[in-house]
Amino acid sequence: MANQEHLAILEKENIWMVWRKNNPQISPDLQEIDLRGKNLKQGNFRQVNLSKANLERVNFIQANLEKAQLNQANLTAANLSYANLKQANLMGANLRQSNLIQAHLYQANLIGTSLRNSQIQKANFSQAQLNRTNLSEVYGQETNFCEANLSQASLYEAELQSSYFYRANLSQAQLIQCHLCHSYFVHANLQEIKGDRLDLRWSNLAHANLQGASLQGANLSYANLSYANLEGVNLRGANLVGTNLEQTNLRGVDLSETIRA
Region 207-225: what's the mean pLDDT? Predict the structure, then answer.
């Protein structure tokens, strides 16, 4: 349960901001609180415990949630655009239909989190933990996932054009019908991904590891796969028009019915 003294201070917005500034050593306890629909724009929630809180439709625009505890919190349809969530714990949280446009989630913990149908354009998820995270149907052009862990994540029908996955781990991720054209996957781990009908047009996958991946019917036209490892990959029916396969490992690859003209 939330600390009643901390809750009383929060209810007086101006006092909360001054109190946080004057007491930086205190980590407020607001766990399990119900703040549905509240306007907390630009609020200071650094290191606040909001685990299991109901934060549905809360306005957190430009709020500071660095290192906040948001595990198992309900953030459905919350507005977190431009918010600072660096190293925040969002493990098991519900972020469906949320707005994370240009939010900063560097090294955040989003293991098992649902981001389905969320807006994540230009958000920074670099070095974040996104294992088993649901990113299905998200919209996020130019999103940064560099060095993030997306193993076993679901990105079904996600719109992530021109995004960055440098050295990211997407092993065993679900990428069926995901749109990733013009994206950057240099040195990324894509082992055993399920990427049937995946759109990778014009993407850079140089030195990427796709061993054992399923890319049946994928569109790889004009993609750069130079020096990539495609051993045992299923490319049946894939579009390889203009694809750069220089020094690519194609041992055991199924190239039947591919389009290469």
Answer: 98
